[in-house]
Automatic annotation (TrEMBL):
Family, similarity comment: Belongs to the transposase 11 family.
Name of the featured protein: Transposase IS4-like domain-containing protein
InterPro entries: RNaseH-like_sf, Transpos_IS4, Transposase_11
Lineage: Bacteria, Bacillati, Chloroflexota, Ktedonobacteria, Ktedonobacterales
Keywords: DNA recombination, DNA-binding, Transposition
The Transposase IS4-like domain, residue ranges: 113-358
NCBIfam families: transpos_IS4_1
Organism: Dictyobacter halimunensis
Domain of life per record: Bacteria
Amino acid sequence: MESIASLSQALRTLFFEDATRLAKEQKVIKRQRCFSATNLLLVLVLGWFQHPLAGPSQLARFAHTAGVSVSKQAIVGRLSFQTASWLRSVLEQAVSTLILVAPLTQGLLARFPAVILEDASSVQLPDALAFLWKGCGGSGSASSVKLGVRWDLRSGQLRGPLLQDGKSHETHNPVHALALPVGGVWVADAAYYSLRYLRQLAQRGIFFVIRPRGDLAVSTPDGKRLPLARYLSQQTGKVIDLSVRLGSIPALWLPARLVALPVAPEVAEQRRAHLVEKAKNQGHTPSAEALALAPWNLLVTTIPATVLQAQEVLLLYRARWQVELLFKLWKSHGQVDQWSSANPQQILCEFYAKLLAMLVQHWVLMESCWDDPHRSWMLSADLLRDQVSLFLQGLRGRLPLEYVLQLIHEALAASASIPARTTCPSTSHQLLDGEYWGLT
């Protein structure tokens, strides 16, 4: 398969060429006695991939399967700030590598060249690492990192994780400045809502679907300010679909659609309580408009109604949850936010190596099962972990790497699909059918 050949080349480049070049530049391997740069990367990345909470002793045992006879002390000696800096450089190099597979050709997603989900997730680090990664401080951690990603739900292509200080806003992450394809859809939550940025997307021919913030200002197409909460309270339809202009300055109005869906009364009450509590912590009271809009799920989009109906807009935004599941996979399965040591140097090495493992995992899963729109990302990751020893032998050259990747492809493709349900279908089945079950 062409995709297997492409993935094989990307893995060889990362583990053999990039790792060696960067280790030489940073003088990580001064004298090659126990470890070469490639072997060290294999042991740390695949060792923590297979055993996420492995300590030096377990890594030393794993090293033997990689053809390296080392002691626990030798592993400890390698877990330094210098090694961490090298691992971070290898991660940055890996992030710039794009693995291409055939995009999905059916269903709602196929109407666009790309459907890009953007989000970020925070990982707290020991306070001793605040000199490298600054956290929010105060009641929060003195050191933390935000992982920013963009994930194309149609092709599976992942941009990121790109790292930033935990104290910085998500829109300051380098991934936010990456180009988006013309005609594609950018999907994000309210933290990314910025009229200036949304205007830029519209000017470049890029659609968006996003939750607005509570201070949303909208006008009717003829320029009259719309009291949104009062207007919605008078509507009786299940889904409201309005043509509006976003913003309060006429010269900067942005034509868009506003899609509104009512929520259950208990959900509305929970939202009001959250707004009151959040405002209290910040020393003010929530606005009457924000409280009045609590009973509604609101989305704004520039996708024409002739391309997506209102319920399809809701379904497309519901698919944003997939990026949350991606972060959940990295944390619960890859345990990128948990450590086997209290040593800051080892923790930093472990953090970067695990992120590399999750990126390599994503590449392999893309090639192995992306053509199945109903694959379970979590189940696929579980199955892949069982194949780490085989994967290692392919990277070592003990077996042909392309043959190993083909075996992994067959194992995952046969077992990772989500069966269809007659009630409340999975997101993948709803995207394929274009029917949003949230209206039932």
